[in-house]
Design brief:
This protein is mainly beta. It has a single domain, classed as Creatine Amidinohydrolase, CATH 3.90.230.10. It contains one helix and ten strands. It is globular, with a radius of gyration of 14 Å.
Length: 123
């Protein structure tokens, strides 16, 4: 569950999140679904900072800002690389390509100078 969350700290590179998840995936023999991402949370569901890669991304140059709220939402698979909508009738069910078992988790957190405040954990 903590994969990527330890990388969260105001001022740190957003790329640290994808790097941490990528290391975890590689160590466990998992692939990462490349076209799904973490995202900002605010006035809308996918608010700033917009999409946040849950895989290593050498082009990511943004930094976490103090008080920013976003998710960490990796999609780990046993071979899948992309996600596709299952049918036109069901926009929520996704299948991996190539077909393989997948798992996803999501936490919402706030970046602070002392690290992450995870708001989706039960007290």
């Amino acid at each position: 569950m903590w994969t990527g969350i330890r990388a969260v700290k105001a001022g740190a590179p957003l790329a640290d999140i994808g790097d941490a998840i990528g290391k975890f995936a590689k160590k466990g023999g998992y692939t990462l679904i490349r076209n799904l991402a973490s995202h900002g949370v605010g006035d809308s569901l996918h608010d700033e900072p917009g999409e946040i890669a849950t895989r290593p991304d050498k082009t990511e140059r943004r930094r976490m800002t103090n008080g920013s709220v976003f998710t960490i939402e990796p999609f780990l698979s046993l071979g899948g690389k992309m996600a596709d909508q299952k049918s036109d009738d069901d926009e929520w069910t996704l299948v991996s390509t190539p077909s393989a078992p997948c798992v996803q988790y999501e936490h919402t957190l706030v970046a602070t100078p002392r690290g992450a405040v995870v708001v989706t954990l039960a007290a």
